[in-house]
Amino acid sequence: MFRHILKISLFQRLSQQRSSSLTTSIPVVDVSALMNCSSSFEQHPSSSMIKASKLFSEALRQYGFVYIKNSHVTPLLVEETLLQSRWLFSQSEELKSKNLLTSNCHRGYYKFTSACVDDKIEAYSICRDIEQPYSLKQDYFQQLYDNDEKQLEKIKNQYNQINKWPPMNSEFKRIMLDYWLKCQKTSTDLLWSLAKYLNLEDPSIFIKQHSKHDNNMEIKYYPKLETKTKTTSEQMLRFPVHCDLTTLTLLCQDRESGLEIYNQNTNTWIAAPSTDDSILVNCGDLMEVWSNYYYPSTKHRVIQNTNNDKSDRISIVYFVFPNYETEIAPIQHQFASQTTTKNSDFEPFQVGDRMPFLL
Ligand SMILES: O=C(O)CCC(=O)C(=O)O
Ligand SMILES: [Fe+2]
């Protein structure tokens, strides 16, 4: 009980910090009717499911990014995860480097220099928390390297590295894994809904090809900048312009500004501030191709916050990937003729072919 009250008041305090004074034209969609739809969607879906699916799909189609509320990722869980993230980055260099440092692996702590000259961004990453993570990728690598046992052994050792957890904080691990799982569940429901909206012959095609949940979650810490670098627009970037490689990406942030989304209709950048009760979803390159260019992979970036650069910033990004062996090619669907027909000479590829190779 006490714990619950504490959590709520903490949540209220933090969400006051998180709510934004900025406005944005990116739509907010209530996805409550879609949650659990991948397991409960019967032959005759309810009208609220159909409505939510249409709103979500059309918003993604139009903007590339959508705020979703009432997903499995509750506002309280977002606050708790941000709080634990903040705890991690405030730990000593020794703890972060000694216990968590990673090289050539998608799990653990690392630093990188980004677009801005004196910018050092810290990051912490986890993947699906299983004992033999290579098992998720072995179908792909085995057909790639067939009989090359030596190479396969090397790859197996590399990919079997497990998540790195800070010692003596079991709460950290519990909350991170909870957040990870709720993003997994949310993304599965959203993938189902996107396929359903396209009226695909097999509406479970996307989720079948995501059965291994080989996803990656990355928390980034952007420290307060000591010097203002405002001279050119290039220098104001904190994370460069890019598209994600994913099918879907789920993103939340704890400060009001920084993230911007490119709108190709108006040729402008739109601010994507954090909100109290929603998280952002966008499509990446794999979904763009797979959906026959219907759901666009949209450019985005993080800029230096010039209104309030007294603060640091945390973002939590959950990258959703199909199984490595999945073959990607534009799919036929009811809207396919309206989309750019780029598929006549399209060479199908496997997801693993596009992923960074870690040896
Ligand atoms: O930090 C952010 O808000 C954006 C990061 C991002 O877009 C990415 O990691 O792909
Ligand atoms: Fe991104």
UniProtKB/TrEMBL annotation:
The UniProt record lists the keyword Iron: yes
Gene3D superfamilies (alphabetical): B-lactam Antibiotic, Isopenicillin N Synthase, Chain
Which Pfam families does the protein's record reference? Answer: 2OG-FeII_Oxy, DIOX_N
Which keywords fit this entry according to its UniProt record?
A: Iron, Metal-binding, Oxidoreductase
Positions of the Fe2OG dioxygenase domain: 212-322
An annotated Gene Ontology molecular function: metal ion binding
Give the top-rank taxon of the lineage listed in the UniProt record for this protein: Eukaryota
Q: Which PANTHER family does the record associate with it?
A: 2-OXOGLUTARATE (2OG) AND FE(II)-DEPENDENT OXYGENASE SUPERFAMILY PROTEIN-RELATED
Protein family according to the UniProt entry = Belongs to the iron/ascorbate-dependent oxidoreductase family.
Protein name (database record): Fe2OG dioxygenase domain-containing protein
Q: Which organism is it from?
A: Didymodactylos carnosus
- Source organism lineage? Eukaryota, Metazoa, Spiralia, Gnathifera, Rotifera
